[in-house]
């Protein structure tokens, strides 16, 4: 019964379309072929089917035959789904039935089963992708109907979706590429010139914040966002026995990678003695110092004490004290 209803509906719309020269008759429904004319049978319809992917534009409140026509008028249209209840038409850029699923109240049709002569003077149209054929004073003309390219949004991938002229696509939170993020909703409109319009690029790189310091290491690089790198090297007087430097990278999760340097003070070894001098040292690693003073009974006429420093290259500085025995008075 449902089928008969649709059949009657289709026929009446067919009439008012480009009906002039087309004689047709309708068979009682027996196979999926549902319209016959003096041409070969045409119009292959799958009942209660809907294609879930590849939709590039849709129309509300139009007849099934107008839906077929809208598809025929467009180069990329390969198939259509139609809601018989809502009179809603969905045009698809693909006819791969992998994405066709059962859905009550819908029909699916592969456009190759419909003849171009349904378009009347537009039947031989040669409109490029993004345009459709329209009649102006009976003459076919190509008019922009869709935005051809997906909008070039930096660092985001746009899900497949509508791109009819005047269509607005809204994304609550656009899915940005790995390492990028957004915190506002995006709306973009396919303008009548066939170009997308949107405001700012929605996706910005994830921020890791300033990189941490490593004790006794200097860093080169002050980037703070995804893929930024900072190179750490021990400052002079310090070294890591295993590596000379490490690079940390700002990762897509907003954390810096955690390579680390263990910058240890350079060792000068134990300090040497100076003859007849005592020493007071505060360590053997950079920047330790050792202070020499002549022991009692000895003195250096030029200095009462000298300080040697453990230098950044691991050698003690070479100041010296010349302690001579005091001549008894
Ligand atoms: C669409 O129909 C045409 C002609 O019937 C056929 O060649 C083509 O394979 C069909 N497409 C799919 C995906 O079934
Ligand atoms: C249809 O799509 C499926 C899954 O994407 C793919 O494996 C298959 O090759 C496609 N068939 C045709 C005819 O393109
Ligand atoms: C369609 O247009 C293209 C380029 O504009 C042209 O090369 C081709 O011959 C045309 N085809 C027909 C059937 O008019
Ligand atoms: C992000 O977008 C900019 C601008 O399109 C591009 O130069 C850059 O390579 C993109 N980055 C990544 C990681 O894709
Ligand atoms: C798009 O909107 C403009 C301005 O409102 C209108 O003139 C034009 O006819 C519309 N185009 C389509 C295809 O709806
Ligand atoms: C980051 O480093 C560059 C090059 O070394 C320098 O020109 C720039 O001023 C630095 N920016 C900040 C915020 O320190
Ligand atoms: C990133 O750092 C935060 C805070 O230190 C931590 O809770 C989170 O697990 C880290 N993420 C990954 C992927 O390591
Ligand atoms: C660094 O990260 C790796 C992998 O996430 C983890 O196994 C390791 O324990 C971390 N090292 C430090 C010092 O946090
Ligand atoms: C001073 O040095 C000389 C030479 O090494 C040594 O013989 C002498 O014992 C030293 N004097 C003292 C008080 O250590
Ligand atoms: C030793 O003393 C020097 C000079 O006062 C100081 O710079 C250094 O940090 C000290 N080193 C140690 C290990 O205390
Ligand atoms: C260590 O550095 C000092 C001061 O720059 C220099 O005089 C000395 O020759 C260096 N020693 C070595 C072994 O490189
Ligand atoms: C310390 O070493 C430097 C270079 O090795 C040398 O020129 C200088 O004379 C030395 N000073 C002393 C007091 O030995």
Q: What keyword list fits this structure?
A:
Complement Module, domain 1, disordered N terminus, Hepatocyte Growth Factor, binds 2-acetamido-2-deoxy-beta-D-glucopyranose, mainly beta, 2 helices, 4 domains, 33% strand, 329 residues
CATH class of the largest domain: Alpha Beta
Bound molecules: 2-acetamido-2-deoxy-beta-D-glucopyranose
CATH architecture of the largest domain: 3-Layer(bba) Sandwich
Helix content: under 10%
* CATH level-4 homologous superfamily of the largest domain: Hepatocyte Growth Factor
Give the amount of beta strand, in percent. 25-35%
Query: Which sheet architecture does the biggest sheet show?
Result: 7 strands, antiparallel
In whole angstroms, the N-to-C terminal distance is: 138 Å
Order of helices and strands: HEEEEHEEEEEEEEEEEEEEEEEEEE
- Silhouette: rod-shaped
Round the Cα radius of gyration to an integer and report it: 41 Å
Total number of domains: 4
CATH level 3 topology of the largest domain: Hepatocyte Growth Factor
**Helix count, per DSSP?**
2
Mean pLDDT: 85
């Amino acid at each position: 019964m449902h089928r008969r209803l649709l059949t009657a509906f289709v026929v009446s719309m067919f009439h008012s379309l480009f009906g002039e020269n087309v004689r047709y008759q309708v068979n009682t429904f027996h196979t999926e072929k549902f319209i016959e004319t003096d041409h070969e049978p045409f119009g292959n319809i799958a009942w209660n089917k809907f294609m879930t992917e590849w939709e590039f534009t849709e129309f509300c409140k139009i007849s099934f035959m107008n839906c077929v026509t809208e598809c025929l008028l467009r180069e990329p249209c390969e198939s259509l789904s139609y809601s018989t209840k809502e009179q809603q038409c969905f045009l698809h850029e693909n006819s791969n039935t992998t994405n066709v699923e059962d859905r009550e109240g819908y029909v699916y049709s592969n456009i190759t089963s419909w003849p171009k002569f349904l378009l009347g003077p537009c039947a031989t149209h040669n409109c490029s992708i993004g345009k459709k054929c329209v009649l102006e004073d009976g003459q076919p003309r190509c008019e922009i109907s869709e935005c051809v390219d997906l909008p070039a949004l930096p660092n985001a991938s746009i899900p497949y979706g509508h791109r009819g002229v005047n269509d607005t696509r809204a994304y609550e939170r656009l899915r940005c590429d790995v390492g990028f993020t957004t915190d506002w909703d995006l709306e973009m409109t396919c303008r009548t010139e066939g170009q997308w319009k949107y405001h700012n690029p929605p996706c910005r790189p994830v921020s890791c914040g300033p990189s941490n310091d490593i004790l006794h290491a200097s860093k080169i690089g002050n980037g703070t966002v995804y893929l930024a790198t900072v190179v750490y090297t021990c400052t002079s007087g310090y070294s890591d026995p295993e590596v000379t430097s490490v690079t940390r990278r700002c990762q897509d999760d907003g954390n810096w990678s955690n390579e680390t340097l263990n910058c240890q003070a350079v060792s000068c070894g134990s300090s040497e003695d100076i003859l007849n001098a005592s020493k007071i040292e505060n360590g053997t690693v950079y920047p330790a110092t050792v202070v020499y003073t002549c022991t009692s009974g000895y003195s250096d006429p030029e200095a009462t004490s000298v300080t040697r420093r453990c230098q950044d290259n691991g050698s003690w500085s070479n100041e010296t004290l010349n302690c001579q025995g005091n001549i008894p008075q």
